Amino acid sequence: MTVHLKSTQEIEKMRIAGKLASEVLDFIMPFVRPGVTTGELDAQCHDYMLNVQNTIPAPLNYAPPGYSPYPKSICTSVNHQVCHGVPGEKKLKVGDIVNIDVTVIKDSYHGDTSRMYYVGEIPIQARRLCEITYESMWRGIEEIKPEKYLGDIGYAIQSFAESLGCSVVKEFCGHGIGTKFHEDPQVLHYGHTGTGLQLRTGMIFTVEPMINSGKASIRQMADGWTIVTKDHSLSAQWEHTVLVTETGYEVLTLSAGAPPKPVFRF
Ligand code: MF3
Ligand code: CO
Ligand code: CO
Question: What is the mean pLDDT of residues 46-65?
Fold first, then answer.
């Protein structure tokens, strides 16, 4: 495995791409309302990226080995959809939770981030899952420091989520990112402390746990992309792109509307 350590010049470009990705999530927030379709959210983000930001939506036509080209510009994963939900005719309704995942390319560099959105008032269990998932992402990020291990991140996420009766999706992971959308290393959201790759200053990767309220098992829908929980339990995900610095970490996907690091509560 070759993990590319980014130069100062590359880090500056990743800061710009990361902030732009987060600003798309800020922009779309007021549109996430009862009655809007996920396809309309995609169209709004697509226009904003192309015409306002001059960024390229990385998902559009993205085709990793074994996949058909992804047909849209963002991913919208509603309720029991875990990730890679394909925007379409589905209308959002009061009580839904939806993950919006945005990846932009600016000046050849990628910024990748996602948040959970609430459609009107949502059930208390849905809110709890979203908050647990947010805290689990941040507990993972807080482990990041040179000489620490990828397993420290995975352990922090898994031990926290499972202690609260939730489960971690194992089939998808965080990833290195730069001029490529997905590169080494793979960042598992489960594992054991002191195992796996050791972190080094200049690494950039995502932390993006998918946490289910029920069992961890998933399946892929007939569209070849959308992933759902097998037991139809709710699933949540948050994602940041993070740089390993000499003293710890720097989150690259922040903007005015990004929620702050939480007070660890659970
Ligand atoms: N943004 C997702 C990630 O965090 C990947 C989406 S691939 C797509 O890695 F093709 F579905 F967009
Ligand atoms: Co990602
Ligand atoms: Co993403």
Answer: 98
Per residue in 68-99, pLDDT (tens digit) is 999 999 999 999 999 999 999 999 999 999 99
Render pLDDT for 86-133 as a digit per residue (tens, 0 to 9).
999 999 999 999 999 999 999 999 999 999 999 999 999 999 999 999
Domains and CATH numbers, the chain: 8-251 (3.90.230.10)
Size of the chain in residues: 266
Q: For the sheet containing 174-176, what is the strand order?
A: 183-187, 174-176, 204-207, 240-244, 249-251
Partners of 81 in the β-ladder: 228
Q: Give the integer Cα–Cα distance in Å for 98 and 85.
A: 10
Looking at residue 265, its pLDDT comes to 87
Cβ atoms within 10 Å of 146's Cβ, excluding its own: 16
Residue 14, helix vs strand vs coil? helix
- The answer to whether the predicted template modeling score (pTM) of the entire model surpasses 0.90 is yes
The residue whose CA has the least distance to atom 10 of ligand 1 is 59
Residue among 25, 101, 252 to mutate when testing ligand 1 (max atoms within 8 A of CB): 101
185 prior amide bond cis, ω within 30: yes
Residue with tokens 């352990």: 155
Residue 5, token pair as written in the block: 């350590």
